[in-house]
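Morning F.,

Quick status update on the modeling queue. The single chain you submitted on Monday has been processed. Sequence for confirmation:
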Amino acid sequence: MLKGLFLFGTLAAVVAAWELPRMLKKGWRKEALVYLLLLIPGVIMSTFVVSLIRIPTPLYLIEIVYGPVIRWVSHMVGG
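Structure tokens below.
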């Protein structure tokens, strides 16, 4: 498990070190920021998966947000 974490972290760092200087050299600052904003959560979530840490599904958040709306609409249409 530790070997997998090290390998994944090293791979992510190598990819970032390869791509970011080229993006910044071309003046793609916004693209580099988006690249980092996607890379960092991806690395964190992949680390959780490799470490076998259970992460909750986003479906729970969707149910919490839309549950009252669905009940209200159902009540309004007579269901």
